[in-house]
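Q: For a teaching session next week I want to show students how multiple molecules come together into a single three-dimensional assembly. I've collected the sequence lines for a complex. Could you give me the predicted C-alpha cells for the whole thing so I can convert them for display?
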Amino acid sequence: MPSTLSLTVNGRSVSAPAEPGERLSRFLRERLGLTGLKEGCCEGECGACTVLLDGEPVNSCLVLALQAEGCEVVTVEGLSGDGLGDLQAMFIERGAVQCGYCTPGMLVAAEGLLRNNPEPTDAETRSALAGNICRCTGFQTIIDAVVATAAARGQAGDAA
Amino acid sequence: MNFVGRRVPLVDGAAKAAGRLTFVADMQGTESLHGALVFSPHAHARIVTVDAAEALALDGVLGVHWHANTPANHYNSSIWHIDQEALADERMFPEIARHIGDRVAAIVAETEEIARHAAALVRVEYEALAPVLTPSAALRRIGPATGAEGEPTFDNPVAEERFAFGDPEGGFAAASMIVEVDVSTPRSHHCAIETHACRAAPQPDGRILVSTPCQSVFAVQAVVAQALGVPADRFRVVKTPIGGSFGGKAEPILEPLCAHFAMVYGRPVSLRFNRSETFVSTRTRSSVTATMTLGLRRDGRITARQTDIVVDIGAYSTGGNYLPGSMLQRLVRLYDVPAELYRGRAVYTNTPPTGAFRGYGSPQIHTVAEIALDIAAGRLGIDPVRIRARNLVAPGAIEPRGGLDLGNARARDCLQRGADAFGWTARRAIGQGTGRWRKGVGVACATHINGCYPAEDEETTATLHLLADGRVQLILALHDLGCGADTTIAQIAAESLGVEPAAIDIVAADTDTCPYDLGTRASRMTYICGEAVRKASSALADRIRNDAVLDLNAAAGDLVLSSASVWRGDGASLALSDLAARLVRRGVDLPSATRTHRATANPGSYAAHFAAVEVDTWTGSVRVCDYVAAHDVGRAVNPMLVEGQIHGGIQIGIGYALYEDVAIDPRDGRMRGDSFSRYVLANAPEMPPMRVLLVEEGEPTGPYGAKAVGEIATIPVAAAVVNAVNHALGTELATLPLSQERILEALARRDIPAAAE
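A: Of course. Below is the structure for the complete assembly, covering every listed component.
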C-alpha cells in the first residue's frame, strides 16, 4: 500500500504517494515529473541520479522514497532560478557538458561540494566527484568549471 | 572567420544543463506499455520451451513473446541501408541462444515494474549445447551448426582478409633485427551513461513511429524492416537526444522488439535496458590476439612487417566480418612500410556480440602496432620518438592498400610538437627511480579515416531554408552523439550566412523528412556532412544576397551577410527577418538551397600522444600523472569541442590500457564485468592533467580545412600508457588491460627488486 510522502523538493512542499520499496529517484522522476534527474545504473555506481538530501549529495537510487519524509531535496531543476544558475552557466562555458546525461547529477554533486567547501582544490573536487561517471569529457573541463565557479562566488562574496 | 575556429558553447547546452532535454526515457505517458526481457543463462543452448503461465497470470501482463510466436526473420543489426547484403544470423528471439545474455523471451505489461517482475517468473527449458568460448577454440573447429534447417551455421573464421605488398621476404632478409611481439586486447564496453532505450508508437495512419537514441535513423528503419519482415516505409524513425553512444547505439538492439510489440498491441511501447543488461545484451568492442613481426634496420627504419590477427566478434556477425579488412585499412595509413604481409581472421564465439566502438578496429590494430613498435625500439636501443619519426607517412603519401592519397597528413608535426610540449627528451632521460614508485614515459601515434569513401557511396545532401523570423532551418539527418556535432555543423552554416550558430534550427534526424545519410559513423560528421552544409550555406547566402538586391538597391556582389542582416557597402542594412517579411509580402518564395556533397577522398587524421606514469611496485597500480595529445585536425571548427573529444578519448583509452574488461570467463562464457561495480573506469581522481595541441595545417578537401577527431581521440591512448608502463618497469607487457595482478605477476617474473624501505 502506498503511503503519502511529504517533503520539500527544490524549495516547494510536496506530498505524493510512494510505495514502500520505491526508490527516491523513481519517485522524483515519475511521481513528480522531475525528469532532469537521470538514472544510469540504479545501483549507486554512476552518480547520474545525485540529489542533495538535506544538503548532502546522495545517489537517489539508493534511497527509499519514504526515507526522505520531511527532508529537503534539491535536484538539477532546483539549481536554476529565472535563468541558469552560475554553476550551470560555467559548465556550458567551459565545455563541461557534452551528451548531458551525467550532467544533472554532476551539477548537483558539485553544488553539494561547493556548499560544504566553498574553495575546493582541484584534488578535492576530483575526490568529491569520484562517484559521478562521465564518459564524454574526461572530467578536466568539469573540474575546471567547478573550481572557476567557486572562485567567482568567492569574488562575488568579497565584493558584497 | 566569424564562427569557424571559435569556442562556441553547445547550441543545446542550456537545455542539457537545466535537465530540460527530453531523452527517450523521459518521454513519459501512462498510455505506454513496457517490456522486460528474459536472457539466456547458457552460452549455447536450444530453447525448448518457454512456460510463462505464472507470469501471464499477473495483473497487468499482456503477453509473452519468444521464438515460437514471433516473426522468424533473420537480420543483421549492422546494416545501414535497406537491401544491404550482410550475413543475417540474428533474430528477435532465437531458437538457439548463442551467448549468456542472449534474448530468450519478453514480457509486455502495463508498467516496467510488472514486466520485470513477470519476466523473472518465466520458466525456460533449455537443451545445453557445447559452447565455443575462446578464439583459439573457435579456430580449431568449424563450430557447431547452431540452427534448424536454413539457419546460418557457426562457420569459423567468419571472415578472412589477406594482404601482401612489396617484397616481404626481401624486407625481412634486409633487416638488422626481426622483432616478434604478441599483443592481446580486451573486450571493453561503451558505458554510455544513458542505457539502451527505445519507444515505438502506432500512428493515426497505421504506421509505427520509432523514437530512439541512434546513430542512423535509416539504419534503424532498415533493421526493423528486416527483422519484422515488413516494408520499411511502415516505420518512421526519429532520433531522440542521445546520452552518449561511442558506437554502442550504432546497431539497433531494442528497436525491432519495440516496433513489433507496438504493432501487436496497437499501443505505444517503451523498452529500456538496465545497466547490467546493457553490458551483457548489447555490444562490446571486439577483442584481438595478434602477432606482429617487424623487420628493422639498425637506424629504426622498418623494412617489412607481418601481422597475424584474430578478432573475436562474439555470437553474431553484426559488422564483425568487416573488421579484419577495416583493421588492415587503418594499419597501413600510419607508417611508410615498404613491405607488408597481413592476415586477419574474425571468429564467432559463444560470447556477447561485438560491434562498433569508437574507432571500429582502429584502437585494436594501432594498440597492437604501437606496442610492438615500442618493444622493437627498446630492443634496438632507439628512442621511441625517433623510431616513429623515421617511419611516419608524409603529407601526400599514397597508402598501399587502396592507393588513396592520405591528404595533408601531419603525423610528423604531431609527433614533433607533442614531444616538445611534453618535454620528451628530458623526461625520457630521467631514470625510472628505484623506490616503490617507478616512473616512465610513453608515446604512441595513430591515424584514422574520414568517412566511408571509397567503400561506400559517400555522399550527403543538406538543405537550408531562410525562415520567416530570420532564422535558418537545416535539413540533414544529423545524429549528434552528444559531443557537439550539431554545434559544429551550425557554426559551419553560420559562417556563410552571417547568423549566430544558435540561429540555425537543426531538425531532428527523421526518416520521413530527411534525405538518406549514412549516419554518425566512420568519423564522417564534420568532414562529410560539414562539407555538404558548407556548400549549401554558401549557396543560400548567394540566394539571400540576390533576393536583397531590390530592397537594398545594390548589386548582389556588393552585399555582405553579417549579424543576421544583409549589408551594403555604405552601411545600410536589412535584417534577415525584415527581408523575409518583404519577400513574403511580395509573394516571393523564401530562399533555400540544397547541395549534395560527394566525397572523392579519404584523408587521414593523425595524432601523437604522450603519457607519464608512476607504477606502484607494491600494489601493481598505475597512475597516469601527465598527458599530452597532439592532433592533426586540419582545422578545428570549434577548438573547445575538439579538445572535449580528445579529453574524453583519453579517458576511454586509459581505461582500455589499465582497467576496462568485461572479463568473459573462458570456462562458462559468463561476463564478470557486467556492472559499474565490477567494470572499472577511470573516474575523476584517476584522470591526469591533459594538454591538447592542435595541428591546423588545413585539409583541402574538408570544410574550412577540417578533418575528423571523434574516433582518433581514443586510438593512441592505450599504447601510450602501456609503453610508459613498460618504460617504467623495463618490461614488455602486451596483454591488456594492465591490471594490478598482471603487473605484479610481471614484476615477480622479472624479479624487479622491490623498493627499499
